[in-house]
UniProtKB/TrEMBL annotation:
It comes from Desulfitobacterium metallireducens DSM 15288. One of its GO terms (biological process) is glutathione metabolic process. GO terms for cellular component: cytosol. This is Hydantoinase/oxoprolinase. InterPro entries: ATPase_NBD, Hydant_A_N, Hydantoinase_A, Oxoprolinase-like.
Amino acid sequence: MHPKEIQVGIDVGGTFTDAVLIEENVIFEKAKVATQADNVLGTVLQALEALKIYHKPVTRITVSTTLITNAILQQRLPQVDLLLFPGSGMSLNAFTWPVTYQVLKGELDYRGREISPPDDLEWRRLLNRYQESPKSKVAIVGKFSHRNDLHEHNLALFLHKHCPNLEMSLGHEWGQTNFYRRSLSTYLNLACAEIYQTFAQQLQQAVEQKGCSAQINVLKADGGIVPLQKLRPVESIFSGPAASVLGSLAQSEPGQSFVVVDIGGTTTDIGLILSGEPLLSAHGAQIGAFSTLVRTLAVRSIPYGGDSAILPEADDFKIAPYRLGPAYCLGGPTPTPTDAMRYLNLIPYGDRSKAEQGLLQLLPEKDRDSLHLQQLSENILMRLADSISQAVESLNKEWKREPAYKVWEVLHPHDDKNFHIWVSGGGAPGLAKALSRCLHIPVKIGDYPEVSNAIGAALARSTFSCTLHLDTFMNRYRIEETGLQGEWLGSRKPHKEVEGFLQEIAEKIAFDQGIHLKEVQIQPFDFFPIVKGYQTVGQIIRGSLIVPPGVRGRLVP
């Protein structure tokens, strides 16, 4: 008999941190603690204490954390020097750079062939600078380094030889095209590394000190999990919205298509599931002013939630895109949509008399009676539902432009495209009817809306992607996701051997990342002939092996 799997999921939200303990797809414990924005580690440990995990043989703990998202948005990142090899043919001024950079000489062409070498004098000047500041952080990125890491690699070796304490990050490790996004991804990942490593070490030590030997994972923006020490820090941004999507998936019937709306205290997350699979974005994640190559689900967060401040405005009110604290009924400073839900008895928590006191502040003295309070509360919920509905409709148009959505449409021509809404989060019971009225489509709620994100974290599985680019004429290959580059020793016109080569590399990468490959999908290979002098002299080949986002099982009610 296989030992029972006991899994813990923790989702650190802007207002509350949710946690669940699941055994054999059944929830045995759940908890909700207030999030300490300046102490994410303490919040996670408090949630673990609330679950009483230290007396159980827990096999896996998965954390969805706002640590890196907060550090980026609050600009709490250390100084990083960004060194660029942009070559010719593009104007860096055409892009909006949220950070400063230095341009270096040296150029490769689009196939990775050297056009002009770097300038030795420039490198010596850099060396003088870093010998004066030996603990600097340096990100080095070349425009076509994803085709050939020659200049990045040589500069890193040169600097490391003379300044061994420098922390460096190289752009080819984000092995995709788009020089601008690759540069900012490299910069951010290095800038976040120290913050994340401190968090990871402290969390690991704290859990071990309690006698728990469970593997600790972190949820990524693409809905996959990775062991705590293997994560590239910037990949943990938007793990909250990913948890929202997976939590709804774990509570729904297999094969369904629906829109996920997770109503938190600070934000509302919106995502899409098509035939039981979360929709992945073809573009990298955008966080603040930074465009990145981080793989992410096609999700959006809007700055409205159950704790959004409601402010009086002439003879009306407005829902502000921020929170000033908890709901008035929970001891907060200002009325919120949560107070409207409590007054209408749509939620069981909070002091109803306090909710009434808070809402009365929004009414003129002559209208402070139960009838007007009822109307005000209903109007607040309709106003919030309308804001969410507009975001859903806007995002629906964006989803239809995603390549993965277009493929799904072709494969499912007869499926209903008017998807129902799956609502989760603490505000789900209070807003379900209002959302249904605004969108004119059915709205469903799971059995555990208040801890849905934690369920998603607990039941998330590993995602994996390994994309091979092979140029048999130049005898070079590269792996898009990791930046791995090497020499191709096979034939000029390979066929079957390419698939085996990709599988071999994928297994090594997965092992290094602590991932067990299951439910692998091999995408069809593309073969493009290279013709020279009327003869085929080689091929450019592209193919990929993936494990899509999903959950390890469905929750048993």
